[in-house]
Amino acid sequence: MLGLRAKDQPAGHLLLLPSREVLFVLPPPAPGKVYQVWVASNWKRGDPLTPSTRSVRGVLSASVGGGDYVCISLEDEGRDMAGQSRPTLVLGWASL
Description:
mainly beta
């Protein structure tokens, strides 16, 4: 289990599974919102992120590699993620 951080404060936990997936368990998002997982390898502040899993439910997972950076954000349900590299509202992040 890894701690998520937001604005340098603890923001919850994620579970790193043996299959190299991270598992998030969150309350359902507000109507019209979705959770979006973002992943990057060897990430440094300012680098683009890659959108991964998106869900209207509070339980979601994403595949990751060793040393990856992962964050979860809250996005508008209608936002097209094609070509996006920045989350709207970061709920938490962790470096694996």
